[in-house]
Design goal:
Strand order of the largest sheet: 3-5-4
Strand content: 5-15%
Mean pLDDT: 75
Number of helices: 10
Structural class: mainly alpha
Largest sheet: 3 strands, antiparallel
Radius of gyration: 28 Å
Order of helices and strands: EEEHEEHHHHHHHHH
Helix content: 55-70%
Number of domains: 2
Low-confidence stretches: 134-146, 162-169
Length: 314
């Protein structure tokens, strides 16, 4: 018997893949709440990814099934683990596991969509050659790594940085929100006020650009709505401005606390099992968690932003 780790459907013996979810079956459901996220064929890649998740404090379950390591997790952690996998793949591409990463089917879509066009072609060729030569009895052979140019490495670094941000998107400061709302409020109030004045003057015959009462009525309602929305946006601007002052004071407080309590010697140290890129990520995650633990009411996006600024300043 086999079970689908996603839909929990039970299949008869001899069937290896769920017909609905198209994932490999498992012999037993170790945790009925877990869902299968990834299947990694290379043991070295799987082991390093497990270490990466452990450092990042992301709970995951793994087991060997049909010559692959299956990673499962609770649905609520799925987005973070998938983002972690994407970041891990891109960081390891030019590292010691670069060749193995290229051969992983679970990593191929990430690499193919994220990298420059020329490298996409090389990866496509490499991937298809590897698939055609793969047999159940043979072990995947390492192929010569494709050397990345400076532009390609910069592209990977930029993409990785975006992937490391939280699922809610990048952090937008209150100062930036205040600036945006100020411009919108001025524009809406201006259009609404002068448009309303222009329409009223047409109604009383000062201007005769519009004669029909129906057309004038529609114009009047339209410009009044713009004016009201502008007033509402102006109130938002005032709120954002006040919050921006508080945010600035809090940022100074956090920066001082970081300088005193988050020195390099307290952060995760270098190890043979992790690359420099992974070390940077581990330290950023550590700083972010320290900020969240010591400053209540702070969003994860804001903590990540402050952590990156502080770490880059070291």
């Amino acid at each position: 018997m086999g079970f689908c780790p996603k839909c929990k459907m039970e299949y008869q013996e001899g069937i290896t893949e769920c017909s609905d979810c198209h994932v490999a079956l498992v012999e037993r459901l170790t945790n009925p709440d877990y869902v299968t996220l990834l299947q990694v064929k290379n043991p070295a890649v799987a082991e390093k990814f497990k270490q990466y998740l452990e450092y990042s404090k992301l709970p995951v379950s793994s087991e060997v099934f049909q010559d692959a390591i299956t990673f499962s997790a609770l649905p609520k952690t799925e987005p973070k683990i998938r983002s972690a996998w994407s970041a891990f793949v891109l960081m390891e591409l030019s590292g010691e596991l670069g060749s193995e990463i290229r051969e992983e089917e679970e990593a191929f879509d990430i690499l193919h969509s994220a990298l420059p066009k020329q490298l996409q072609k090389e990866l496509q060729t490499h991937h298809m050659e590897n698939i055609s030569s793969r047999t159940p009895e043979t072990v995947i052979n390492n192929s010569e790594e494709t050397e990345l140019s400076a532009e390609e490495e910069a592209s990977i670094e930029e993409i990785t940085g975006a992937l490391l941000r939280s699922q809610g998107g990048t952090y937008e400061s209150m100062g930036k929100k205040a600036e945006d709302s100020y411009g919108s409020a001025i524009m809406l109030i201006g259009f609404g006020f002068f448009g309303t004045l222009y329409t009223v003057l047409n109604i009383f015959g000062v201007f005769k650009h519009f004669q029909g009462l129906f057309s004038l009525g529609i114009l009047l309602v339209f410009f009044l709505i713009l004016f009201v929305v502008g007033i509402y946006t102006w109130k938002q601007y005032k709120t954002y401005s006040q919050n921006a002052i508080e945010e600035s004071d809090r940022k100074v407080q956090i920066s001082q606390w970081l300088a005193e309590n988050c020195r390099l010697e307290k952060m995760p140290e270098e190890a043979e099992t992790i690359s420099p890129e992974e070390l940077d990520l581990l330290r950023l995650n550590w700083i972010t968690q320290e900020i969240l633990n010591n400053f209540s009411g702070l969003s994860e996006e804001a903590a990540t932003e402050y952590a990156e600024e502080f770490y880059n300043s070291l």
